[in-house]
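#lab-general

N.A. 3:47 PM
ok so I finally got the sequence cleaned up, no stray characters, all 145 residues accounted for. can someone with queue access submit it? mine expired

B.Y. 3:52 PM
send it over

N.A. 3:53 PM
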Amino acid sequence: MTLAAKLAEEAPATYRFFCRAVLPFQHAEGDVHMRCLAPVFRLHPLSGEVIGIRWNETDRAPINTLAYDEVEEFYRHVRVLQASLDELELAVRLAPGDAILCDNHRVLHGRHAFVGHRRLLGCYIQADDWRSRLRVLEAAMGESK
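B.Y. 4:20 PM
back already:
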């Protein structure tokens, strides 16, 4: 079950809040300072389907995008959101040589504290690039049938 589906079913007011409330996010470290304003759940403009999720408790910026009377509502809903995330968490232990592929717009991911040495290699591909390649390959396969 996805987080969005869980909230829509079990806590619909929380789901609706995080679909509409535009929240500030930022990450500042070294020579990087990223900022974004977005709801937690990004919905497709035509279907209303959840097409993205944005949540990182440590990258939340000061809440200056909500009306005064919405701030208390935010804190009430964020407790429900976090409890649901905790219930859905899945820990995966990777062995040397294992790879994991995540859609950064659809999967919340992170790492637990770690003692020792590890080496992670990240590779980022724009979604538009792989979707384009998929469409081209599907068209080619359809033509060859």
